[in-house]
Amino acid sequence: MPELPEVETIRRDLSKFILNQTIEDIAVHDKRVIRRSSVPLFIKRSKGQKIIDVQRRGKAIVMVLDRQGFLVVQPMMTGQLIYQKNGTLEAPKAAKVIFTLSNGGRLIYNDQRLFGRVYFTADLREIDYFRTIGPEPLEKGFNVPWLQKAIIKKRGPIKPLLMDQHFVAGIGNIYASEILFRSRIHPQRSAYTLRKEELQALHKATRMILKEAISSRGTSMRNYLDGQGEKGQFKNRILVYARENEICVDCKGVIKRFVQAGRSTFYCEGCQK
Ligand SMILES: [Zn+2]
């Protein structure tokens, strides 16, 4: 699933091409990806509007439209948002929605398994996801004093909490494992037991890893492709995720895997307490 660094990479790539372009036409090849309104209403509201900003919130891309409203794409597990410079090329097989832009290019939403969603909204506050999402980890609202307060009543383990979008935005399974390894915290630790030094380490690791991953244009495990249809390179810098039975780079111990809240968790027994 694309997490914050992958969605941010897509946002940055797309901004170069789609900013200030008018949506001249919209072809919906599968109506199931359009949420919150019928396809004709979706087209009516979005078509003819200019994209004046491309933002990201958590794992969602938000295109701000000039006259009214927002075009939102949540890629979820399998969605891809790709810009095609030459709008006369054949569209990819899994193309579900094709936006033809005033510069002659096309913004294509691909989704092989229909987990993702595309919709128009006049107001982001109408959408549960945006109303209830936690702070952005690369912004000022995510800081050590905030973490100290936020974990006080969190008796559950830290790793699922880091992946909870209501707690903090944009972190999923891959980066949660990496962040905890880098901060030397065991994924099973009850969040409220973390000491100030540990929260400082967690805060620092979160920001460092997400920034490094953005510079590497994200991590490609299965489906993720950036806004130009290329794979991300952070996979080569991952130290624990999907590295079960490999040797830890720090202590030469063995990387372990277990299932936590239904997801694979990877950690080093030697390094993480
Ligand atoms: Zn280790």
Quick synopsis:
The protein contains 7 helices and 10 strands. The chain is an alpha+beta fold and 273 residues long. Strand 3 (60-65) and strand 4 form a beta hairpin.
Question: How would you describe what is shown here?
Answer:
- The chain is α+β, with helices and mostly antiparallel strands and 273 residues long.
- 26% of the residues lie in helices and 22% in strands.
- It folds into 2 domains: 4-132, MutM-like, N-terminal (N-terminal domain of MutM-like DNA repair proteins), CATH 3.20.190.10; 144-268, Helicase, Ruva Protein, domain 3 (Orthogonal Bundle), CATH 1.10.8.50.
- It contains 7 helices and 10 strands.
- Helix 1 (4-18) packs parallel to helix 7 (196-215) and helix 6 packs across helix 7 (196-215).
- The longest helix is centred in the C-terminal third of the chain and has 20 residues, at 196-215.
- The protein starts with a helix and ends in a 5-residue tail after the last strand.
- The site of zinc ion has 7 residues, from loops.
The largest pleated sheet is described as: 4 strands, antiparallel
Quote the distance from N terminus to C terminus: 27 Å
- Fourth-tier CATH superfamily name of the largest domain: MutM-like, N-terminal
User: What proportion strand?
Assistant: 15-25%
Number of domains: 2
Judged by helices, strands and strand pairing, the structural class is alpha+beta
CATH class of the largest domain: Alpha Beta
**Integer average pLDDT:** 94
Please list the strands of the largest sheet in the order they lie side by side.
Answer: 1-6-7-5
Order of helices and strands: HEHEEEEEEEHHHHHEE
The name of the CATH architecture of the largest domain is: Alpha-Beta Barrel
Give the ligands present. zinc ion
How many strand units? 10
Helix count, DSSP H or I runs of 4 or more residues: 7
